[in-house]
Amino acid sequence: MRRIGPAGRTGPVDEDEGGFGMSFQVTPGMRRLGASVLGMEAIVAGLITPVAIVVGKVQPALAVTVGIGLAVLCVVAAGLLKKPVGYLLGSVVQVLAIASGFLVTSMFFLGAIFAALWITAIMVARRVEGATTR
Q1: Torsion of CA 72, 69, 126, 114, to 10 degrees
Q2: Minimal CA–CA distance to 87: which of 78, 99, 96?
Q3: What is the pLDDT of residue 21?
Q4: How far apart are CA 85 and CA 105, in angstroms?
Q5: Are 90 and 114 in contact (CB under 8 A)?
Q6: Could you say which DSSP state residue 31 is in?
Q7: What is the pLDDT of residue 81?
Q8: What's the alpha-carbon Rg for the chain, to the nearest Å?
Q9: Would you state the pLDDT for residue 30?
C-alpha cells in the first residue's frame, strides 16, 4: 500500500502505523521521556497499595489489584514504546491513574500530574527531535 507523504513523496505505509492511515512516528527521545514518566508512575502506582489499605480502608484484594495492576501496566507500556500501541497503552494508563483517585483521593492530583508529564514528554520530544533534524 502506498501513500503520499510529506513534500509529495510516495512510499509504503509504515507497518507500525497499524494501517489506519494515521502517521505516528516514534522517536528515540519520545521513548526515553515516555519510559521515564511511566517508570516513575509505576513506583507511585505500587505505593498506593499500602496507602489504600491503611489510610483508605480499602479491601486488600482490591487495593493490590488496582495498585500493582497499574504498576504492571506502566511497565508493559514502557516496554512497548517502540511501537505506537505503547503510546496508546500509556495514555490508557494515565486515565486509569486518575481513576485510581476513587481509592486514594490524592491520586486524582498525582494522576493529573503524570498525565500532564506524559503529554509534555511526547510533545517536547517531538518538537526537539523535529528541530534537530532540520
Answers
A1: -120
A2: 78
A3: 47
A4: 29
A5: no
A6: H
A7: 93
A8: 18
A9: 87
